[in-house]
Amino acid sequence: MANVKTGLNSIVKYLSTKKETGRRSIGLLVDGPNVLRKEFNVNLEEIRDVLKEYGNVKIGRVFLNQYASDKLVEAIENNGFEPIICSSDVDVRLAVEGMELVCNPTIDTLALVTRDADFKPLLNKANEHGKETIIFGVEPGFSTALRNSADYVIVLENDQMNYYEEYLTESKSRDEDIDDDIVPGSRRKKDAMMDY
User: Who wins on pLDDT, 43 or 159?
Assistant: First the structure.
């Protein structure tokens, strides 16, 4: 894993401590319109590599709207994911597919890549059915409700990937330098996009 982004090794180490005797069977679902944007620079290959250290990615689907470019669809396929083009609401289709994974006895872990609080009920159902949940959230705008519903939280921001506790430590040291930009009672900067 040459040329790995900062923090990736700590993620691999963190998730490897969570391994059980058997490898986990993982279903990975990506909210394409919400996270596959130039400003976020999300690397699906790195996400897959991190999950491979934890278990076997049995299902990898990226949900896109009908406006997705052919180059994006091709890049998703080249990374080993299945692109799902939705003519209607992407969130609804992802939630339905997610519930199918929750009810699938061969899947142990549900992993989501999103910022959207709309998937909190899906994570709750997965937890109710004994599935482990991993959320890869993208900042800015990563839903606090979503973050608090998953077993493992990995935050993607500024081309870095950190598990949540490490992210808080780094954010706290950065926030000390810009305290006057913080909204009172919140960890968010003024004028930051909110996604609730």
Answer: 43
CATH class, range 9-164: alpha beta
Enumerate the β-bridge partners of residue 132: 109
Q: CA geometry: angle at 87 spanning 27 and 113, to 5°?
A: 30
Percent of the chain scoring above 70 in pLDDT: 74
Q: What is the DSSP string of the chain?
A: --SPPTTHHHHHHHHHTT--SSPEEEEEEEEHHHH-STTT---HHHHHHHHHHHEEEEEEEEEEETT--HHHHHHHHHTT-EEEEESS-HHHHHHHHHHHHHT-TT--EEEEE---GGGHHHHHHHHHTT-EEEEEEESSS--HHHHTTSSEEEEEETTEEEEHHHHHHHHHHHHHHTGGGBPTTSSSBTT-----
Euclidean distance between the first and the last CA atom of the chain, given in angstroms as a whole number: 36
**What angle do helix axes 8-16 and 44-54 make, rounded to 10 degrees?**
30
Does the pTM surpass 0.85? The reply is no
For 107-133, write each residue's pLDDT tens digit.
Answer: 999 999 998 889 999 999 999 999 999
> How large is the average pLDDT for residues 188-195?
37
